[in-house]
Specification:
This protein is an alpha+beta fold. It has seven helices and 18 strands.
């Protein structure tokens, strides 16, 4: 038997003991379809802060990039998967924690309005779980085989995202009320993003350039990025540049205008440039890692990166420009080509957006 606490962003929690968590899981090491992964075992017994509620997420499995509804789930600050039990995957996803796996570390009763709204978000199961062992959790991380018998396929929270969630329409109003009352998103930012996304819907057709200027003026007033949806200008082969960056180095993200000169459509050699990345243009950040391999979220098979791919410290998707999935809390790292960056060893570091 398990239920909702319900937690808010910023609260302190204690991760329950390994035995308590294993008792909540089914024979596949999952609760409500969400796997408890081997990488999570080391956090048992630790006190951590809630980063954001994960009442919703985005579908990166089927390619639809639509929203998905989650229940009784949160992200914890800085708790990302290191891929140790999944072939060394370097995606570094924020792990999802069922509230049944956590306990409040401090007595902080939720505000009455949040408790009322959270009632519809509660995850309650009246069926007792059979429980599983540590070995079951380790075994469940690997599937029998991948697309071919020679491949190894892995099973993680992201590959099982569809099973652990349900469809969520972008226009469903309750999600935005939950975003605000849970502490995920401030009311001012919520209203700003709604205004800018509404304006973006009319920036098309006749008078496009003038409409973009109006959008840019309003976005600048709010301290938001100017029009982030411009396509690239490359018509032939996309250019390539190698810097040989290593973790710990400081880099400056080139201007949006410079990056558009490297894109064909919204891609450079197969890597997508996302509107969410425009906010970081001109900023200086530290290299977190070079990414060589990540799991294919649909098949669970490891994919090697064919070209340079860099992630920067605290530079993540804020989901404020993303159609159909505003304010997704997953905080996925943005992937950067080295041609979009330049060394800045003597420059001060920029501060990434709050909540990243």
């Amino acid at each position: 038997m398990h239920g909702s606490l319900p937690l808010q962003a910023g609260e302190w929690v204690a991760v329950r003991s390994e035995a308590e968590i294993l008792a909540t899981l089914d024979e596949d090491g999952a609760l409500d379809g969400l796997p408890f992964m081997p990488e999570m075992l080391s956090f048992c017994g630790r006190k951590l802060r809630v980063h954001r509620r994960a009442d919703k997420t985005c579908d990166t499995v089927t390619g639809s990039t639509l929203g998905r509804r989650m229940r009784g789930t949160v992200h914890l600050e800085g708790v990302r998967c290191d891929g140790a039990a999944h072939g060394g995957c370097q995606a570094a996803c924020l792990m999802m924690w069922k509230e049944a796996w956590l306990a409040r570390a401090e007595s902080a009763p939720a505000a009455p309005l949040w408790r009322m709204v959270a009632g519809s978000a509660a995850a309650r199961t009246g069926q007792a779980m059979p429980g599983c062992s540590r070995d079951d959790v380790l075994r469940a991380a690997v599937r029998a085989q991948g697309v071919t018998p020679e491949q190894t396929a892995y099973r993680c929270q992201v590959t099982q995202l569809i099973e652990a969630s349900s469809p969520l329409s972008w226009w469903e109003p309750g999600q935005y009320l939950r975003d605000w009352l849970s502490g995920n998103v401030g009311l001012g930012l919520l209203l700003q993003v709604f205004l800018l996304r509404s304006l973006a819907q009319v920036v098309t057709g006749r008078g496009f350039s003038l409409k973009v200027k109006i959008y840019d003026a309003i976005a600048t007033f709010f301290g938001q990025s100017p029009w982030p949806y411009h396509p690239g200008r490359v018509t032939g082969r996309t250019p390539h540049e190698t810097l040989g960056l290593e973790p710990g180095e400081l880099v400056t993200v080139k201007s949006h205008e410079q990056i558009l000169e490297t894109l064909k459509g919204m891609h450079n050699r197969g890597l997508s440039w996302a509107p969410e990345m425009v906010r970081y243009c001109g900023g200086t950040y530290r290299v977190r890692a070079r990414v060589d391999r990540i799991l294919d979220e649909k098949t669970g098979v490891m994919l090697p990166m064919k070209n340079d791919c860099i992630v920067l410290e605290d530079v993540v998707c804020q989901s404020e420009c993303s159609a159909n999935r505003l304010f997704c809390p997953r905080g996925i790292y943005a992937y950067w080509r080295e041609i979009w960056l330049e060394r800045a060893d003597s420059a001060p570091e920029s501060q990434a957006s709050p909540g990243s």
